[in-house]
Design goal:
The chain is α/β, with parallel strands linked by helices. The chain contains 7 helices and 9 strands, in the order βαβββαββαβαβααβα. A hairpin with a 2-residue loop joins strand 5 (83-89) and strand 6.
Length: 203
């Protein structure tokens, strides 16, 4: 069993870190992609590419969508302090490469992270300036329906994700901002306006 460890505080950097987080099925990955494609923000935000041990999905490319690693390689990189944070999410490991993020920050880039709730907690402990945005589903009923529509969940895994989601939703009060993703178009617009304000982009 791998165990996550907190790194010491990494101090002030030139760029900003913006974290999108929320339960599985909240739509954070879709909103993360929308921010990066926004005409107002695509020159202002840089994606941090996470590493994962989960299988590559159709259409995904190594180094563009994720850095795909075997569990053995992932474990070795943990011992070498390759990650700012890492976590086992259900059956797979995910982590944020340290050097990638630090280099972007030092170059004055604003780094956008899309990570789970525990990962967001570790990052905010290391970067006190990080802005945390919680993506919240309108209800647990809606969340259940979204997870069912994926058609990739067994009844057991669905219930497991929902149990975890209930605990993660309790952490929303510790975030700097919350976006309720009921209508995707509205959530995209609300999130974009929020990030424009955070980055102080002139309208």
């Amino acid at each position: 069993m791998l165990n996550n460890k907190k790194s010491p505080s990494l101090g002030t950097q030139d760029g900003k870190i913006i974290i999108l987080s929320g339960p599985s099925g909240s739509g954070k990955t879709t909103l993360h992609k929308a921010l990066l494609e926004s005409p107002r923000l695509k020159e202002k935000l840089v994606k941090s590419i996470s590493a994962t041990t989960r299988p590559k999905r159709q259409g995904e490319r190594d180094g563009r969508d994720y850095i795909f690693l075997t569990e053995k390689v992932f474990a070795k990189r943990i011992t070498r302090e390759y990650f700012l944070e890492w976590e086992k999410v259900f059956d797979n490991y995910y982590g944020t490469p340290k050097v990638q993020v630090l280099n972007l920050l030092k170059r004055g880039k604003n780094v956008l992270l899309c990570i789970d709730v525990k990962g967001a907690e570790y990052i905010s402990q290391q970067f006190c300036q990080a802005i945390k945005i919680f993506i919240k589903p309108p209800s647990m009923i809606e969340l259940r329906q979204r997870l069912k529509k994926r058609a990739s969940e067994t009844n057991e895994s669905l219930e497991s994700r929902l149990r975890v989601a209930k605990e993660e939703l309790k952490k929303a009060k510790y975030y700097d901002h919350t976006i309720i993703n009921g209508s995707l178009d509205k959530a995209k617009a609300d999130l974009e306006e929020l990030v424009v304000k955070i980055l102080k982009i002139r309208q």
